[in-house]
């Protein structure tokens, strides 16, 4: 239990300013200017412990996180495990088909390969979260330490941003292919892929350098951008990062597919789904955006910990949806995957 202790310092029989102790924490002399200011400092110290170190201590302690029972932690772990394995398997097949099928080695398909790599990273991140969730039921602690949390948050943020921007790059590449009737050049495709990954790494590195911060999710089994404070540091990073890495990619995606519909929709030559990519961005990453925005304008602790975990679970479904849309929904890539799964049949087809 937390406790406050109030006392008087005496020196040579002369009373000095009161001495305040909160969980063995003493109020500095220059912070005490009457009971009201001293009480405000104590509450600020308490809130700082809750937001700065409370989640970390809770994640590494031997108790279950607040608001979760063992069955609920196990359920979240199983959901994350299913999402991780489905995303990894489908995107690994996509990557493997690119490596084994020469017909897929084109500039346009390079953008799909980049997206599959990013989504595989998200699924790996989910697999770590699933493992720690299942371990938490038995050992009840985050097994990778505070440094592991920072690495986990950075890796997840890089791959998430690369997935969002990669979807926008594919939308632009498809617009260039279908509307300009000219093939996308290798230089342009490679430049796009490099820009996506370098930009994602650039923005994900800022929380490690002090602009923003990575911390545990409410369940304490995965790490992401810390939104619990909602202070000026978080707010400035959130709005700047969101503009360049969510609003702009979403605008590019919607605009590219709408222009494709206007030009090719009536002729019936449009062979791609023009609505699913934008819906995936909105429904997959929108809940995170709403949660972060709420943390800026209100006290996020008013939202239950279970509800705060929903955006993370939804976002981990994006790799599977992207694989179904961009890989299994593409006839050539699907044929390449089938050839990889049945190599003997593909060799017979080539000999014929």
Automatic annotation (TrEMBL):
One cellular component (GO) term of this entry: membrane
Summary of the function given for this chain in its UniProt record: Receptor for all-trans- and 11-cis-retinal. Binds preferentially to the former and may catalyze the isomerization of the chromophore by a retinochrome-like mechanism.
Compartment(s) where it occurs, according to its Swiss-Prot or TrEMBL record: Membrane
G-protein coupled receptors family 1 profile domain boundaries: 90-326
Major localization class: membrane
Single Gene Ontology MF annotation: photoreceptor activity
Membrane topology: Multi-pass membrane protein
Species, as recorded: Callithrix jacchus
Gene it is expressed from: RGR
Gene Ontology terms: biological process: phototransduction; visual perception
InterPro entries hit by this protein: GPCR_opsins, GPCR_Rhodpsn, GPCR_Rhodpsn_7TM, Retinal_BS, RPE_GPCR
Keywords annotated in UniProt: Chromophore, Disulfide bond, G-protein coupled receptor, Membrane, Photoreceptor protein, Receptor, Retinal protein, Sensory transduction, Transducer, Transmembrane, Transmembrane helix, Vision
Domain of life the protein comes from: Eukaryota
One Pfam family matching this protein: 7tm_1
Transmembrane spans: 73-98, 110-131, 151-172, 184-206, 237-259, 280-297, 309-328
Protein name: RPE-retinal G protein-coupled receptor
